Description:
The radius of gyration is 24 Å and the shape is globular. It has helices spanning 14-25, 51-60, 63-67, 123-136, 187-192, 215-218, 265-273, 322-340, 350-378, 390-411, 414-419, 464-467, 484-492, and strands spanning 4-10, 30-33, 48-49, 79-82, 89-93, 119-120, 140-143, 146-154, 157-164, 170-180, 196-211, 226-230, 235-240, 246-252, 282-286, 289-296, 300-301, 304-306, 312-314, 472-476, 497-501, 515-518, 524-528. The relative contact order is 0.13. The protein is 28% helix and 25% strand.
Amino acid sequence: MDKSTSVLIVGAGPVGLCLALDLAWRGIDVTVVEERQPIGSISAKCNHVSSRTMETFRRLGIAAEVREAGLPGDYPHDVVFRTSGTGYEIGRLKIPCRNERFGATEGIDTDWPTPEPPHRVNQIFFEPILLRHALENPRITIHDGTRFEEFREEEDGVSVALRSSVTGETFEIRAQFLVGCDGGRSSVRRAMGASLHGDEVIQKVQSTFFRAPDLLQRLTPGPAWMSYLYTPERAGNLIAVDGQETWLLHNYLLPGEADFDVVDRDACLRLLLGVGADFSYEIIAREDWIGRRLVADRVRAGRAFICGDAAHLWVPYAGYGMNAGIADAMNISWLLGAHLGGWAPASILDAYEAERLPITDQVSRFAMSHAKGAIGERTSISPLIKEDSLAGEAERRRVGDAAAAFHQQQFACAGLNFGYFYTGSPIIAYDGEDAPAYSMGGYEPSTVPGCRVPHIWLADGRSLYDAMGRDYTLLRFDRNVDVTPMLRAAEACRVPLTLLDIDVDTVPPPYRHGLLLSRPDRHVAWRGD
Length: 529
């Protein structure tokens, strides 16, 4: 086993694997340790890959492969609202299937300002893709069956104590930096002396991953990726995993139902699906979970960092559980890459906590607010909703319209993807203009320093992001501006800087300056004329 590495990552879930792949893409050697053995035992919890994550996959060259995974190409990605799985359909949000993803122009989930719109796919399909690419990468070493014990920081690195879960043997790996991507019970977080604070319990969800080959034929006609199920007795959420026979059912526990095992799983499943004793199914896994709003009081201790669930836990509305963790990983990745690549001092790493902690708190509150709204929505359903009467029809219309309006923001969450901005960063040159506010579903493109560089399509048909350099990129909208001094300054400091002259028919409104400096993570570092 290797005894030294540049970066040691604890945890080989989606966040840890994305961090490893991105660091390797930046030329950094990485070792990943994972307690599971084999690593292939994958949870079915995550069902959505956000646009920003798909942009990362595009840069790493795996977006097309991820997009081909999951539901059949023609299977609708719609979100539907029903009185039960076999009951009335009371509302529907149209979302393009994979085959129509890049051509669709109508509906709430189209016209994303990006070359990579989101993709609905379960974790059991995309995590193996990440793992395979990591195993094939010569810069990445993965050890399964290996548990993190503790770390000791030294002047020029960290010594990490590990234990084999097979033999019990302990050993050490020396690294320049340590990153914990080891989930909500993170051992790295505890070893750092960090702790989680916030709301311990927002909701409890009894979640069942099951196989039922004939359920698709039983459901109310009009298949969907996700079905919100509203019965007077309780509410749930059914997710199509493979579009054929595997499903994930979330049963939202009622007040007073404290224990997952006490609540009759089978009875609740049959109630929510609207099926009787003749319906048979096989439980593949119990994926029960508690929705929380917990944020770490720190995400760094010297040479150790934490990302993802190790740093924050919240109800994953809009898919912003795993995807927020991957955003953490992409932030610390380019900062580590800059320092280890020799073109940035260690002080650049101060930006990680300064940037990500405020965003973590903001997103956690968006998720909590939406969760509380959903809980309130579920408690106001009348028994009339199942009646075949005018009053029943009116109740179904009321609930369906309200549900569609409420949930639309999380299934077209442009704000969470593109609206967040960094304030108070030590590596951004602010100019006094405030960034525009954003919500879960809405945002205004802006070039205010700290905002995401607004996406545009170039005159030659390329995405702006595909044309950018690997590290810093200077966008020039006015070729008359002499940027030679900036290029020479970057060269003298050994900072990789690509000059990109923007060729578009009409400069989009957000770009009000002749020059813009984009960071490697496509946030604005500076702008000017």
